[in-house]
Amino acid sequence: MLGKIARWSVLVVFTLITLAPLLWLVLSSFKTDAELFGNPFGLPASWSFVNYQDALDAHPLLLFLRNSFVVALLSSVLIIVAGLLASYALMHQFRLSRFTFGFLLFGILLPVNALMTPIFFLVNMMGLYNNVLGVALVYAGLFFPLGFLVIKSYMDTTPMEILEAARVDGASFHRIFRSIVAPLSAPGAVTAGIFLMITAWNELLFASILTQDASAQTVQVGVRYFLTAYSANYPVAFAATVMAIAPTVVIYMVLSERIVDAMTAGSLK
Amino acid sequence: MASRRNIALYLVPAVALVTVFLVLPLVVVAILSTTRWVGVGTPEPVGFDNFSHLLTDPAFRRALANTVLWVVVGTVVHTPLCVLVALVVARRPRGWRFFRTAFFVPNVISATALALLWYFVFHVSLGPLNTLLRAAGLDDWARAWLSDPSTALGATMTPWVVYVGFGMVLFLTQISTIPREYYEAAQLDGASGLRQDLHITIPLIRRAIALQVLFVVGYALRSFEYPFIMTSGGPADSTMTLSLYIYRQMMTANQYGLSMAAGVVTLVVGIVLTALIFLGLRRAER
C-alpha cells in the first residue's frame, strides 16, 4: 500500500514537471500582458489568436519556419541517402570494412560544439555563410553518425538469403540495392528521418553562428528576437515559441513510439 | 558482382560528409589552436601560449569547473531520478503507456524554447516563481535568481530535470530484456519489490546506466542554450560553460586561436571522460 502511494507520487510529480511548464506556456500565449501578470496561473479570459497574429507581424516568423523546414529536410535527406548507400556497402566484407564502420561512426562520441570555430571558417570558405544550404550541409555532417547508426542497425536485419538468391538470379550490385535492400530498409530510413528532422529543427548553436539575417536564420535563432531586454511582450513571445515547437510536438504525438525507438535505437548494442 | 570499385563508390557520400565536417575540422582545430589569429592574414604560431592563457583565464576555469559539476550532478542526481522513474513505469501501473510517452515529450522540444520559458519563470519581477513565493508569504525567498551569483548557476541547471524521460526510456528498454523467471524466483524466496529492484533490476541495467552517464557527459560538454539564453554566462561568468566560452571567444572577442584551443580542451575532456566510463563499465561487467 505504502509502495503504491510512493509510486503514484513519483508519476504525478514527474507528470507535473514535464507537462505543466508546457501547458502554462500554451495558456499564457493566449493571455494579454495584463492578464499574464494579474492572473499568471488561471485560464485566459478569451481564446483569441491575436498574440499569434502579432507574433507573425512583428518578425518574419514564417520565413524562419520555412528556413528551419528546408534545413531539416535537406540535411535529413542527405544523411539518409549517404547512410543507406554506406550501410549497403558495409554489408559486404572487405579489407577495411571494420575500420570504415568505425570511421563513419566515431563522431557520435565527439562533443561537436568544440568544432564550431573551424566549421565557421569552412562554411565561409565554401561561400555558404548566411545560406540555408550551409547550415543543412553542416547538420548533414554533424548528425550523419546518428542517422547512420539507426539505418545500419535496421538494414542489418535484412536476411542474407534474399541477397544470395538475387545474386544467383543474376541481379547486379546496383540492382540488389535499388530493388531489394533499399525498399526493405525504408522503415529504418523513415525512423532515422523523423529523428534527424527533429534534431535539426531544434539546433541552435550552429544555426546562429552560420547565419546573419532572416534570409537564412532558422526559427530557433529567430524566436530569440521576441525576448530582448528592451522590448518584451511576453504573451506574443510565448505565441512565437508555441509556433516554433508545435511541429515537433505534433509529429511526436502522432509517432511517439517510433521517435522514442529512434532516439534510443542501437544505443544498447 | 560486389566489386571493390562498387563498394567504394557507395561509400563516397558518407566518407565525404564525415571527412569534410568532422575530420577536417578536427585537424584544423588542432593545428590552429597553437596560433594567434584574428580571422584575417596568416595565423601566427605561438606554441602553447593559448593553453597557458586558458588555464589562467578565470572564465575558462569556471567553464571547466561548471562542466565537471554538470557531469557530477547528472551522474549522482539526474541518473538516479531516471532509474527511479523507470522502475516505477516498468511495473506497468495503470496508464503506464501515457506516462512513458508524456515523460519523453521535453526531449523533442527545442532547448531554445524551454530556455526562454525558464528564463521567464525565474524573472525577478514578472516570473511565476517569485509570484508564487510572494503569494505563499515567503517574500524573503523571492530574489533575482538569474543575476544573483549564488543562484544563477542552479537556475540554469534546474531545467535539466525535464529530461528524465530520455534516461527512463533507455532503462525501460533494457529492463524489458530481463527474463521474468528471475523475478518469479525472487518472489518465491519472499523478496519484496524493493529488494527485487535493488538486487535484480539495477545490476542488470548497468550497461544502460553507463550509456546514460555517457549522454550526461555529452550534454555537459554541449551545454549551451540554457546559459546562453537565461544568463549569457553571467553574472561574473558564474554560469559559463565550455561551449559558451568557445562561442564568446569566437563571436565577440574574435580570438580564433584561443577559441580553437578551448575547443581542443573540450575534445580532450570529452575523450578522457568517455574512456573513464568505458573503463568503469568494463570493471562492473567483470
Automatic annotation (TrEMBL), chain A:
The record, for CDD domains, names: TM_PBP2
Principal location class = membrane
Q: Does the keyword Membrane apply?
A: yes
Q: Which keywords annotate this record? A: Cell membrane, Membrane, Transmembrane, Transmembrane helix, Transport
InterPro entries per the record? MetI-like (IPR000515), MetI-like_sf (IPR035906)
Q: Which SUPFAM superfamilies does this UniProt record tie to the protein?
A: MetI-like
Presence of keyword Plastid:
no
Give GO cellular component annotations, separated by semicolons. plasma membrane
Tell me where the transmembrane regions lie. 69-91, 103-126, 132-155, 176-201, 234-255
Q: Which residues form the ABC transmembrane type-1 domain?
A: 65-255
Question: Which Pfam families did the record assign?
Answer: BPD_transp_1
Task: Name its cellular compartments.
Answer: Cell membrane
Which GO BP terms, alphabetically? transmembrane transport
The record describes its membrane topology as: Multi-pass membrane protein
Q: Which family does it belong to?
A: Belongs to the binding-protein-dependent transport system permease family.
Protein's UniProt name: Sugar ABC transporter permease
The record lists the organism as Actinotalea fermentans
TrEMBL record, chain B:
Q: Name one GO cellular component term.
A: plasma membrane
Tell me the keywords, alphabetical order: Cell membrane, Membrane, Transmembrane, Transmembrane helix, Transport
Under the heading Pfam families, the entry gives: BPD_transp_1
* Subcellular location per the Swiss-Prot or TrEMBL entry: Cell membrane
| Ranges that cross the membrane | 7-32, 68-90, 102-122, 152-172, 204-221, 256-281
Q: How is this protein positioned relative to the membrane?
A: Multi-pass membrane protein
InterPro entries, A to Z? ABC_transporter_permease, MetI-like, MetI-like_sf
Q: Name one GO biological process term.
A: transmembrane transport
ABC transmembrane type-1 domain residues = 64-277
Q: Which family does it belong to?
A: Belongs to the binding-protein-dependent transport system permease family.
Name recorded for this polypeptide? Sugar ABC transporter permease
> Which organism is this protein's natural source?
Actinotalea fermentans
Classification from the root reads: Bacteria, Bacillati, Actinomycetota, Actinomycetes, Micrococcales
